[in-house]
């Protein structure tokens, strides 16, 4: 796993600094354009809310980007937060490739 040195930028900050500010669009007007409440957009802009798949579609349409762009920004931010917030996940022991292959050949029943 590649370790990120610095915290990724929250996608809300990118919306605010790279789109709203240069275009002189208010949160209220942008929320209206996106078809969401001002509160919803404000939470994202102030880094207290996350980009959902629905919001990624809306932003990609408004700013001529891709939904993947917005979802990847959010994913990178969330993973960094999870990785640095706790070290509990490091206690998980990797399953050896030998065990994985042995179990897959012994038990051919699909997991439902």
Output the keywords.
mainly alpha; 0% strand; 6 helices; 112 residues; 434 Repressor (Amino-terminal Domain); 62% helix
Look up the CATH topology: 434 Repressor (Amino-terminal Domain)
Tally of contiguous helical segments: 6
**Assigned CATH class:** Mainly Alpha
CATH superfamily: lambda repressor-like DNA-binding domains
Number of domains: 1
Mean pLDDT: 91
- The counted number of beta strands is 0
Helix content: 55-70%
End-to-end Cα distance, whole Å, is 30 Å
Regions with pLDDT < 50 over 5+ consecutive residues? none
- The CATH architecture classification is Orthogonal Bundle
Element pattern in H and E: HHHHHH
Strand content: under 5%
Describe the main β-sheet briefly: none
Structural class: mainly alpha
Radius of gyration: 20 Å
Shape: elongated
Helices and strands, with pairings:
Layout: H1 11-23, H2 27-34, H3 38-45, H4 53-63, H5 67-85, H6 97-106
Helix pairs in contact: 1-3, 2-3, 4-5
Structural write-up:
- There is one protein chain.
- By secondary structure, the chain is mostly helical.
- The protein has one domain (11-106): lambda repressor-like DNA-binding domains (434 Repressor (Amino-terminal Domain), Orthogonal Bundle).
- The chain contains 6 helices and no strands.
- The longest helix is centred in the C-terminal third of the chain and has 19 residues, at 67-85.
- The protein is elongated, with a radius of gyration of 20 Å.
């Amino acid at each position: 796993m590649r370790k990120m040195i610095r915290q990724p930028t929250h996608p809300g900050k990118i919306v605010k600094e790279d789109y709203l500010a240069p275009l002189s669009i208010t949160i209220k007007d942008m929320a209206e354009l996106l078809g969401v409440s001002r509160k919803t957009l404000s939470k994202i802009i102030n880094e207290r809310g996350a980009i959902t798949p629905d919001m990624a579609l809306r932003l990609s349409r408004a700013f001529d980007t891709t939904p993947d762009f917005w979802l990847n920004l959010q994913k990178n931010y969330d993973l960094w937060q999870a990785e640095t917030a706790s070290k509990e996940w490091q206690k998980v022991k990797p399953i050896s490739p030998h065990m994985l292959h042995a179990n897959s050949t012994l038990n051919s029943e699909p997991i439902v």
